[in-house]
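Exercise 7b. Backbone tokens:
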């Protein structure tokens, strides 16, 4: 019986990797399951007890709260620890990617909560950093944490992004009768770490274009940014110090350039779900996000 359960769990893990999350277990045991992957390999501790190394999986844990700690070999300073609540007959999945520092590391924790209505489905997306932009099936859903109580059961595309951090996008299966909880940590982009400190980095002035970014992504051309006559899109001040110009109106689209507070980009008379189409350099167009409450950019007509 144990061999059969492990085989079923392995199939579920493969399903998770290929389609996102299929975390409900197809057997009647009241135990909970835990599956952990990490890069590089890590040592796993549960409630302070050493239980093995990654890849780690078990289907013989008591439901309830546990503390999981992951320690990469030779990198104790970037170990990860979290309290999790295990649900009976549900696989909780942890994926971690360790960088040189804790804030340059990233990962996901997926779990399910049963719903009273067996035909209903729900989705909750939590992020680190807070207030990351969440998109579901290419539709902006606002800033994390996002809770969708009327999502349809089945496969969905989810993207999480925040300026100064690497984007994270994946496809996941939300089963009927459950709420999928996705807790996503984004990795800080090292070359932008200095720009993220408000105490040491002044907001660039419109009259004085900001210095070139150390990133390979170009900044918006000053000729385009000096648009004088409406309509134009004005880039507003934000804690990061710039706004990404993307190839399409989606947080998962390619980044073309970066616009800075005070710059005014010619508006191309097209808007899509809170995104403005602009000319970011002579003859080249892209999209900038207005933000859920208009905090990133405003249209001046």
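Sequence design result:
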């Amino acid at each position: 019986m144990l061999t059969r359960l492990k085989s079923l769990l392995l199939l579920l893990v493969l399903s998770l990797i290929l389609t996102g999350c299929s975390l409900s277990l197809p057997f009647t045991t009241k135990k909970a399951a835990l599956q952990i992957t990490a890069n590089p390999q890590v040592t796993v501790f549960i409630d302070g007890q050493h239980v093995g190394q990654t890849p780690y999986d078990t289907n013989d844990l008591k439901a309830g709260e546990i503390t999981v700690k992951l320690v990469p070999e030779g990198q104790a300073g970037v170990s990860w620890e979290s309290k999790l609540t295990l649900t009976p007959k549900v696989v909780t999945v942890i994926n971690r990617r360790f960088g040189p520092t804790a804030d340059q590391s990233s990962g996901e924790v997926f779990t399910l909560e049963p719903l009273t209505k067996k035909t209903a489905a729900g989705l909750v997306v939590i992020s680190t950093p807070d207030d990351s932009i969440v998109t579901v099936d290419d539709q902006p859903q606002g800033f994390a944490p996002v809770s969708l109580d009327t999502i349809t059961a089945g496969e969905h595309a989810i993207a999480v992004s925040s300026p100064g951090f690497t984007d994270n996008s994946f496809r996941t299966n939300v089963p009927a009768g459950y709420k999928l909880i996705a807790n996503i940590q984004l990795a800080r982009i090292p070359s932008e770490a200095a720009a993220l400190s408000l105490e040491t980095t002044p907001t660039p002035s419109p009259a004085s274009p900001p210095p070139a970014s150390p990133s390979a992504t170009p900044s918006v051309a000053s000729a385009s940014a000096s648009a004088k006559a409406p309509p134009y899109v004005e880039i507003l001040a934000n804690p990061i110090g710039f706004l990404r110009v993307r190839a399409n109106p989606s947080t998962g689209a390619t980044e073309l350039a970066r616009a800075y507070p005070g710059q005014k980009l010619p508006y191309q008379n097209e808007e899509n779900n809170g995104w403005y189409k602009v000319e970011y350099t002579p003859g080249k167009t892209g999209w900038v996000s207005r933000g859920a409450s208009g905090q990133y950019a405003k249209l001046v007509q």
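Instructor comment: The longest strand covers residues 64-72. The radius of gyration is 22 Å.
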